[in-house]
Amino acid sequence: MEQKMLRILQNCKNIRELKQTHLQIFIHGLQHSDFMLPKLITVSSAFNLLDYATHKEALRVYSRMKALMVEANSFTFTFLLKCFETSQALEDGRVIHGEILKLGFGSSVFVQNSLLGFYANCSENLGSAYRVFEEMPERDVISWNSMISAYMTRGEIQSAIGLLDKMPERNIVTWNSVVCGLSKAGNMELAHSVFEQMPLRNELPEKTVVSWTAMISGYATNGDLKSAENIFNHMPVKNVVSWNAMISGYVHNHEFDQALCVFHHMLINGLAVNGKCREAINLFDKMCLEGTKPDDVIFIAVLSACTHGGLVEEGKLEEAVRFTARMHLKPNAVIWATLLFCCKIHGNGDLLNSMTEKIMDQEPSNPSYLTLVSNLSASFGRWEDVLSFRVAMRQQRMEKVPGCSSIQVGNRVMNF
Questions:
Q1: Which of 51, 189, 279, 380 makes the best surface tag, with the fewest CB within 10 Å?
Q2: How confident is the model at residue 343 (pLDDT cuts 50, 70, 90)?
Q3: Is the pTM of this model over 0.70?
Q4: d(CA 106, CA 94)
Q5: Contact 120, 152 (CB under 8 A)
Q6: Closest CA to 269 of 230, 290, 240
């Protein structure tokens, strides 16, 4: 029966199955088995339920191991310390610390990181955790991240920044931990400084959605919606957490109309990128009928949905232009450029001149738009226009941003 229950315990797929199996272990009188309890602790650890297997039970199993002359390894102490991560278990954890040193595991980075985490979670201050960190014969990036994160969690910002400056190699967890900690503490000036130090896209490690979202939440919580919007609009990739952070920021600052507008934008954008173009347009119509005023970003999302869904047909492109002109807000160059690109997709050169004029009126010195218009003119065989645009760029000493390709070699990104 014991072997059968061990197999069932090993195959538990969720917490419900684990608790049912635990009940069967008690029914069959196997709760004191020298094999069953360690396995229960291991499975509880996999489900992050180490409070389910209490530290007293874990300590009792360890005592039985010693009595039976079963040799402990680094995993033994890692699991034990995981069970002890509450303030009530601090003294028992110190006993295990003594065992670690006595058995020669003091040089194991794996075990030392577990000790560091134990003291960071259990102690009233971080003195013991820092002593473990200082006495480590070898540290890895996890050691540094754990100590920095512990300082950030306790609000000891200067200590965290001091370690960040000394850290030999940082990964994205390091950066995110510091940015999130500073944002939560409301120190947005320092958070922005650290955020700006983060490597650019296509470098390792690069900014992730976590760091961008932390900055949005920090600015919004501190009432700086303009900076939050700026970060949000420059995010290369957004997920539902990013959108929620922006919506929550508006609600927190009592900007309910803006919160609703961002919510609609999120839905329209999500429908568009998932091929639900008709649904995106219907939602846009409903949004307008309910009195929510769309901004240019939402309008561009709708235009993109139309374009990708083939809804801006050749015969309806003029209608789209008229609709754009009737918008309550003044269309900017980005909107006209979106429509201009539709002309190329559907081979409609009749509207090229009028939309080119509108773009040039608003952004006459933008090399990206001049290049776009020049390339579109070339696709319609209007070589005189192409020449005039190229001459204008040369006279204004504007340069086209060169294209490039990138490959990763080891930990470096090479551009060519």
A1: 189
A2: low
A3: no
A4: 13
A5: no
A6: 240
CB-CB contact of 160 with 189 (8 Å): no
| Encoded tokens for 70 | 């079963």
* Rounded Cα–Cα distance for residues 416 and 405 (Å): 6
Nearest alpha carbon to residue 18 among 36, 51, 40, 38:
40
